[in-house]
Amino acid sequence: MLDAPYLVGVESPWPQVRAELLEWMTVRLGAQGRLEAWRDVILSPPVQALLTGIVIVADWIASNEEYFPYQPVFLNGSDRLAAAWEALDLPSPWSAVSPPADADVLYATRFELPEGARPRPVQRAVVDAARQMPVPGLLIVEAPMGEGKTEAALAAVEVLAERSGAGGCFIALPTRATSDAMFSRVLGWLRRLPDADIGRGAHGVALAHGKARLNTEFTTLFRAPLPSGIGMDEGGASAAAHRWLAGRKRAMLAGFVIGTIDQLLFTALKKRHLVLRHLGLAGKVVVIDEAHAYDVYMSQYLDRALEWLGAYGVPVVVLSATLPARRRAEMLQAYDNGRFGSEPRPRRRRRTGSGEPSPYQALQEDMRYPLLSFSGVGRAPTAVACDSSSRTARVTVERHGDDLVLLAETLREALAEGGCALVVRNTVTRVQETADELRRQFGDELEVSVAHSRFMGPDRSAKDRWLVDAFGSPEHLARLGRQRPGRHVVVASQVAEQSLDIDFDVLVTDLAPVDLILQRIGRLHRHRRNRPAPLSQPRCLITGADWDAQPPAPVSGSRAVYGESNLLRAAAVLWPYLAEDRVLELPADISSLVQAAYGGGPVGPGQWQARLQEAAERAEKKESKRTQRANDYRLGKVGAAGSDLRGWLAGETGDAERGSDDARGRAHVRDDGPETLDVLVLVRTGEGLRTPSWLAENGGAFVPTDVIPPAWLARTVASCTLSLPAAMTSGPGQMDRLIDELERRAYYPAWKDNPWLGGELILELDEAGTANIAGFSLAYDRFDGLRVARDPS
């Protein structure tokens, strides 16, 4: 171009060349007679987005020299294309066959059920709803913890895929850890899944989150021969991870994708390559798990994503144990806005001028539970109540003072004849403080362990496995040949309430929003087993508040995490159980508690009302600001046919798939407060830099800094990811100070182009596992994780 300036500018011949190429292609394809009719075709924005995505993917493939080399020139166009397509070897789409009509047969052939087990009522009802609801449509499943909602969702996926012609599915979960756990379960399901077109090659599978390449189960799929993938039963579908589909921008194009909720929320975020995310979801069934975990800010993006999914005709299944009724109505209306066009969001329990509630408003008044809500014909959603399993519980709920010595005395008494206790704290700092004091109080009397998010990746995975292997179901322990600990206390953060099948005899929890307290109670007497006599009835003690105050005063850490209003309303709706010795009936009381806590009406004693109102007003102002902030970066509504995509990404935030921009994109769709900072942890010894010695794989390995480490070692180093807490990044200039100090102490130019280590920040610990940086003292070990203390000024 520099040698041919005449090719640049308004007099450039490029427009004429493009016109000649288009005219040549038109003649070549015999399309001259169709141009007049095509000129009158009006494409909707969803169709424009998908066509744009297809063009981009086609361009990427055609521009790839590996598949379309410039040599040999003797191949004609058809042979060259055939050779490229064979070399690319993309996995075939799923072609679902009609699932067995008998729900017993369907669940028995798709999942590892215990001998003699039959589907629970909720699981049967979900399959029935998937068969009856319009397609496309949205199905919301609200059911207690432990009812088998995951298996029900996968069964619904199969039904909806066969009805809609979908060629895959995407399953969205709250965190990387829950996505990794779900990945294993989905692979097991795929092993048993029949296919109408057996023999066309393996179906593509992808794990979609920022650390997916560190998941050994996922990366192992690349080493398997693509056509066979995982060993499958004869007649079942096969699965494999395809290298071309493993890139950050292309992972969502695989047939079966498991990932974090961010990957779905990104479809409503103004980002480059957004059309590829839309293309990846169109033609799938989407499952959104643990919908109760998504706050007001994230819900702005989720609702817009649902609107576009509705426009694309994508069937969606939403799972939740405890969902406020207003969210139920908002999600269904958002989806229907995509199906039929926008109309105002449902008002809070307000009736129309005719005196009849609108269909969405009626959903807000439905207090039945378990409940299935799904799209109807037109804007008339259907709600169907279904039975719970025979699993019921009567839980005693008690107030407990926020004194650690008192807590130790309570646990000593409760566990006098043995048993396992779970103590859930709302912050990692409270987890570690509690564990330290309990160890001082108990000594060798019983063991105290911790579980929280401030562990390196391998240690967090090992901790999750240990929890399930020690406190899981009797069947799981029997398969392992293990016994449950005789007396044990686990002090955990919120990680204990998310997707871990663990079971304890007694629960102590910080005051939290009522839906999360119910989630935590779901870890109490979860399975049938023999328990010590004093713990034969489930018991939950709620602490983390001054119960003598009117209303109760939550501790500061909990207020920072959840907001005072949510905590006070939780205390208010639980007050009859806390103050009047009323027993919590599960699952019967779940819906009424959640709807009362989030319904906006007065709750709790009369003398609390002024304080609750003040807290509610502060929360509403904060939510309004967060909603506006979300709107600044949120994709617009689905436009009418004839409107185009110009300005679609006005104000866009960059590329959600590019390295550090992945974290920036996550920050836009989540409002988690002050940012954390991910680092890779290594240990500085007298002989040089080494990986942590306790790693099961390549522990204590020497890490060269003057050359690029070999791939096996670089991957091990990359797996040692640790999130430094927000306390270390908060404050003016503190994030920059922290990054500058990390780079000054450990920057290795030889690593900058390495795909595993390039651009990563390194935290070097001494051999005792400690470091001082940016005004903080750090200490790390594999049992208790990272401890952080601010240095004295």
TrEMBL record:
Superkingdom of origin organism: Bacteria
Biased composition (Basic and acidic residues): 614-633, 655-670
Record carries keyword Glycosyltransferase: no
Keyword Iron-sulfur: no
Keywords assigned: Antiviral defense, ATP-binding, Helicase, Hydrolase, Metal-binding, Nuclease, Nucleotide-binding
InterPro entries cross-referenced by the UniProt entry: Cas3-like_dom, Cas3_C, CRISPR-assoc_Cas3_HD, CRISPR-assoc_Cas3_HD_sf, DEAD/DEAH_box_helicase_dom, DEAD_box_RNA_helicases, Helicase_ATP-bd, Helicase_C-like
Example GO BP: defense response to virus
Location of the region described as Disordered in the Swiss-Prot/TrEMBL record: 336-360, 613-633, 650-670
GO molecular function: ATP binding; hydrolase activity; metal ion binding; nuclease activity; RNA binding; RNA helicase activity
Residue intervals of the Helicase ATP-binding domain: 130-341
NCBIfam families reported in the protein's UniProt record: cas3_core (TIGR01587)
Family assignment from sequence similarity: In the central section; belongs to the CRISPR-associated helicase Cas3 family.
Protein name: CRISPR-associated Cas3 family helicase
Originating species: Actinoplanes teichomyceticus
